[in-house]
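Collaborator request, handled under Task 6.
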Amino acid sequence: MISDKAHVDPSAKIGEGVTIHPFAFIDKDVEIGDGCVIMPFASIVRGTRMGRNCRIYQGAIVGADPQDFRWKGGFTYCHLGDNVVVRENVIINRGINPEEGATVIGEGTFLMANSHVGHDSHIGNNCVLGNNVSVAGDVKIGEKTILSSAVVVHENSSVGDWVLVKGGCRITGHVPPYCIMAHNPTSYFGVNATILRKYGNMSEERIDDIAKCYRHIYQTGTSVFNALKRIQSDVDDTPERQNIIDFINGVNLRIVAIPKDLE
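Structure tokens returned to the collaborator:
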């Protein structure tokens, strides 16, 4: 159902079973997958590629112009996977580089009211962004990560898989997988064990191995470089251990909440 009171550009590609409510705005060169619902006063801006069964609520803007002085008006993209929910007044900026790159929201991700995702950021599958979360440009968020209300993630930061960041935290660096982060300044608060048990079906032994990795990193007073060597010799080789090692090596050993003299 497409309301005759909605603006739908003739060049937009609309899938089967799509509902577009009155006063929605669908720009040129937009692709909307099957079964999506676009609520009143939502805007889908050019360059947006939306998967199936997405729901875009009132006042949301998907594919908004980048908020970056490097963007010179070229044609860029914003990709949403299947089953993404974008609640009221969310703004998702598309990328800044016409040649490559885009803003990407993974499948099954839920963006709560008034959250913002900046240009060229990549949000993994099945993430939750709470109310008023602000994600700057060029940020990477892993899969199944939860950013609680009013979290701020600064530009060029990375957050691993299965992370829980508690409300109001400011992330100005890199958060490795499976952690809970809390307080300001943000600091390590333990392993995200409850979520890993309930939704990751992870055994107690594997959770204990994750905790052992982070005791070496956060609680021994050694450098991250030495902590990784201890992890490799002391912790069983599991996919979780390798994910932690690969993440930290990928961000050049710099992770959030480690004192500068120990990095």
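The cover message to the collaborator said: "The longest strand covers residues 187-191. The mean pLDDT is 94. Please let us know whether this matches your experimental observations."
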